[in-house]
Automatic annotation (TrEMBL):
Domain Alpha-L-fucosidase C-terminal: start-end pairs: 371-455
GO molecular function annotations of the record: alpha-L-fucosidase activity
Keyword Hydrolase: yes
Lineage: Eukaryota, Metazoa, Spiralia, Lophotrochozoa, Annelida
Matching Pfam families: Alpha_L_fucos (PF01120), Fucosidase_C (PF16757)
PANTHER family in the cross-refs: ALPHA-L-FUCOSIDASE (PTHR10030), ALPHA-L-FUCOSIDASE-RELATED (PTHR10030:SF37)
The protein's name in its UniProt record: alpha-L-fucosidase
Family per record: Belongs to the glycosyl hydrolase 29 family.
Source organism of the structure: Dimorphilus gyrociliatus
Leader sequence residues: 1-25
GO CC, one annotated term: lysosome
One BP annotation, GO: fucose metabolic process
EC class (word): hydrolase
Residue stretches making up the Glycoside hydrolase family 29 N-terminal domain: 24-359
Length: 458
């Protein structure tokens, strides 16, 4: 006969053990109200500066922009049509460009060294642009990928490996949801997006494959226009990304997940390319800035005047970080895998500036105001009780007048990279501070453009 007391005791122990087991409850639901509550990982908030890389079959014609195929055969812009007629044989197709995407000089270790020297804390490589060509051997891109035609390489995997072996930089990937001329996308479009054959057979399999294979810490989505996030199944994917993916704790997303999401939902807001609001934003944003003013991809016809100067780039970095943003500065490698000297120069110049002045950029927060009320060419950041002022123009009289800095007797003013304390005094009735800038030769300054003042004990 069973001892019922013993049976009940065992059942009680059993249920107690079950209650102690971790319950698999998804923290984030596939709804914007839930997804938008996820905080950005701290590494991204601290990073402030990253490198965007646009590279694909469009790097072969290297003319106009990375939208070459659409402008040639979609919009049929005259200059693109004439360019092909003049330089390629009759009957030439966009697919014919792929075999010349040779990447023979692609050395991801060299890329990693260059990106580290730039001071960037993360990189975002184009895994697939709107042309549909994937820079990895995708299981759903058939013969339209970097292993099947062109390089015969896993371009994504090679860079991911080098970045992680050689640097402490975070690795991210750009992915276009749509493709200009994919027949399934065009079918869904013709059906007014009441079907989503393209999403189920192409877009989503690619995204899950990218995340599971390469574990990117940034998933930078694009190409979402035309219809809303329900068609793209965006919310379901982001919920998986935040809850169950191999990068759930560290991944950053953006806001391009369907019509109505940009600048409204997702992780970091991009709002538009080259987004630079000039005033402090409540929600962290990212300024995707192309160094070539006319293109994110490499252009053979570009001349020097069409590239942003280092002064312009540092100004944009200062403004962006002051306003609660990150700068994602774009380069376009050539079809052979080389990064052109103009891009290399800009990256190394930025790195040299950050080596002296990075204290005012990394791990900072916006101050109470982005720039000054008296001298507009100074932008502020803050770190705990310290305020930094990024000065873009040296005052002609060596005397800098600021309205926002209200000093007390113990206030100390220094310049990063310069050893001596700067003399200052309170301004008149309007308040603020008057700073005596050092009267030293230009070669002895810490750098030739943009200087950082450090204010302590305000």
């Amino acid at each position: 006969m069973l001892n019922m007391t013993a049976v009940y005791s065992r059942l009680l122990i059993f249920f107690l053990l079950i209650s102690l087991q971790p319950v698999d409850v998804h923290k984030y639901l596939p709804e914007w109200e839930s997804l938008d509550k996820r905080p950005l990982p701290q590494w991204y908030n601290d990073a402030k500066f990253g490198i965007f890389i646009h590279w694909g079959v469009f790097s072969v014609p290297a003319y106009g922009s990375e939208w070459f195929w659409q402008h040639w055969q979609g919009d049929k812009k005259a200059n693109y049509v004439q360019f092909v007629e003049k330089n390629y044989k009759p009957g030439w197709t966009y697919a014919d460009f792929a075999r010349d995407f040779t990447t023979e000089f692609y050395n991801p270790d060299e890329w990693a060294e260059l990106f580290e020297s730039s001071g960037a804390k993360y990189v975002v490589l184009t895994a697939k642009h709107h042309e549909g060509y994937t820079n990895w051997p995708s299981n759903v891109s058939f013969n339209w990928n970097s292993k099947a035609v062109g390089p015969n390489k896993d371009l994504v995997g090679m860079l991911a490996d080098s970045i992680r072996r050689k640097t402490n930089i975070h690795f991210g990937l750009y992915h276009s949801l749509y493709e200009w001329f994919h027949p399934l996308y065009l079918m869904d479009q013709a059906n007014k997006f009441k079907t989503n054959y393209f999403v189920k057979s192409k877009t989503m399999p690619e995204l899950y494959e990218l995340v599971n294979t390469y574990k990117p810490e940034v998933v930078w989505s694009d190409g979402d226009w035309g219809t809303g996030p329900d068609y793209w199944e965006s919310k379901k994917f982001i919920a998986w990304l935040y809850n169950d993916s191999p990068v759930r704790d560290s991944v950053v997303t953006n806001d391009r997940w369907g019509v109505g999401t940009m600048c409204q939902h997702g992780g970091v807001f991009t709002c538009q390319d080259r987004y630079n609001p000039g005033v402090i934003q409540k929600h962290r944003f990212e300024n995707a800035l192309n160094i070539d003013k006319n293109s994110f991809g490499y252009r053979r016809e570009a001349d020097l005047s069409q590239y942003l100067t280092i002064e312009e780039l540092i100004k944009t970095l200062a403004m962006t970080v002051s306003c609660n943003g990150n700068l994602l500065m774009n380069i376009g490698p050539r079809k052979d895998g080389k990064i052109s000297p103009i891009y290399e120069e800009r990256l190394r110049q930025m790195g040299a500036w950050l080596k002296v002045n990075g204290e005012a950029i990394y791990n900072t927060q916006p101050w109470k105001r982005a720039n000054d009320t008296v001298s507009n060419d100074i932008w502020f950041t803050a770190k705990e009780k310290t305020v930094y002022g990024i000065l873009l123009k040296w005052p002609k009289t060596n005397n800098l007048q600021l309205g926002m800095i209200q000093p007390i007797q113990e206030t100390q003013v220094t310049m990063l990279g310069y050893q001596k304390t700067l003399h200052w005094q309170k301004r008149g009735l309007g308040g603020g501070i008057s700073i005596e800038m050092p009267n030293i030769p230009l070669p002895l300054l810490p750098n030739p453009y943009a200087w950082v003042l450090k204010f302590e004990k305000l």
